[in-house]
Specification:
Number of helices: 2
Oligomer: single chain
Number of domains: 1
Radius of gyration: 32 Å
Distance between the termini: 85 Å
Largest sheet: none
């Protein structure tokens, strides 16, 4: 067998091995990685929706409280502003 034939056979063997490895990686991605990312994405979407719903609920409750007790809400807002101003001056 000549050197050229040996080099050609080695190149073909390497190309075949690379194709086999590429196929194995694609199978792993399809069977293991993609489902995990899909599940994580679904969980993240559910958590974001739950957080958004909770924020809307709390904002509605705060609005109701302000309407029921406007003077108390004004006093709390003034106190918060005073504390914030005092902290920012330092």
């Amino acid at each position: 067998m000549s050197m050229q034939d040996l080099a050609t056979n080695t190149a073909h063997d390497a190309a075949a091995e690379i194709a086999k490895l590429r196929e194995q990686v694609e199978v792993l991605m399809r069977d293991r990685v993609t489902p995990v990312f899909g599940a994580a994405m679904h969980s993240a979407e559910n958590a974001a929706k739950a957080a958004s719903d909770e924020m809307r609920h709390q904002a509605a409750r705060l609005g109701d409280t302000v309407q029921e007790k406007p003077l108390a809400a004004l006093a709390v807002a003034a106190a918060a502003g005073f504390v914030l101003a005092a902290l920012l001056r330092r």
